[in-house]
Amino acid sequence: AYKVHRVHGLTFDVGAFLNISPDHISPIEHPTFEDYFHCKRQIIANSRAMVIGADSDHLGLLLQAAEQHDAPTTTFGIDAADGGHESQTHVDMIMTPDPSRKTGFDITFHDDTQSFELDMLGEFNFLNAAAAVAIAHRAGVPFDDPAMHAIERVQVPGRMERFVGDDGLHVYVDFAHNYMSTKALVDEMLRVYGERHPRITLVAGTTGGKAIDRREGIVKGALGRAESFIFTLDDPNFEDPRKICEEMASFVSDESAEVQIIVDREQAIVTAIREAREHAERFNIVLVIGKGHETRNIIDGKAVYWPGDATIVRRELGLN
Questions:
Q1: pLDDT tens digits, residue range 63-97?
Q2: pLDDT tens across 4-16, in order?
């Protein structure tokens, strides 16, 4: 946003910096990670107060920048005992997953602990919820205000959006589009469903002309856990979508994994669901990633409408 001046001249009452990882690096985006990180942390210089993820890389630099810009800061993070960075020296709001509740977690702030139950799976969603609570608190909402629990009823379209067929087939539509988000998604599937030894199918593509490292990263995030990969179209722009798919397929080093290229995205989703049903003796999960709630593909420089992943999934599962 700062690179292309989308928020030029705006000052935010509360800004949030959740995390940072190599992404959006290409000749038409950020030439280096350093440039990406510099642009992303401009949110600190343009906010009156900050919420910062304590698990973020380069945390010290972020806190230093907040201090330099006189931005009072609330840090949030996962309890170190549950996977948080051991280097955490101080976390204001601590999120602790509750093993007895697959979508439940606690947030502790000073000596007060509040319990939450989301409508969405995903430890990363729990952290996002903790960030939202921290932002609301920085904006003046008391930590123990019942309004904080409004986050429990949130279901974001295209973000860990779950669909279940009458036959028990689980399909998730998610915006995962790089190594970190794909790995987190597959990790969550195994956390929740691992005891059922799921057969996981990944339907994925990636953008043309930018962020080239996503082609390997998406595959790497699921490699060794997904049993079937179907590569398809996802905003190819001026590139040949089949060549993008072929490049992604070349990174599947697991010889036991099934690999297909189906450029037509609708047909790719249909195939994934129908083939999963052919393995009815297994518990099947189909992950359709990259587009989330979007209903357009960028092809040859133009936005081309299409119904969207969720619409195709509902139809194929008979949920319309």
A1: 999 999 999 999 999 986 655 544 456 799 999 99
A2: 778 888 999 999 9
pTM of the predicted structure, to 2 decimals: 0.86
Q: Output the pLDDT for position 89.
A: 60
Backbone angles phi, psi at 260, to 5 degrees: -135, 150
Alpha-carbon torsion angle 50, 17, 124, 257, nearest 10: 180
The span from the CA of 273 to the CA of 94, in Å, is 39
How many CB atoms are located within 10 Å of the residue 312 CB? Answer: 21
Residue 285, classified by CB atoms within 10 Å of its CB into exposed (0-12), middle (13-18) or buried (19+), is buried
Q: Given this model, what pLDDT does residue 86 score? A: 47
- For residue 183, give both structure tokens: 């790995």
CA–CA gap between residue 221 and residue 181 (Å, rounded) = 8
Closest by CA to 15, choosing from 73, 97, 67, 76, is 73
Domains and CATH numbers, the chain: 15-153 (3.40.1190.10), 161-317 (3.90.190.20)
The answer to whether 150 and 85 are in contact (CB under 8 A) is: no
What's the mean pLDDT when you consider all of the chain? 92
Q: What is the 3-state secondary structure (H, E, C) of 121-174?
A: CCHHHHHHHHHHHHHHHHCCCCCCCHHHHHHHHCCCCCCCEEEECCCCCEEEEE
Read off the amino acid at residue 204. A
Helix, strand, or coil here: 271? Answer: helix
CB atoms within 10 A of CB 183: 18
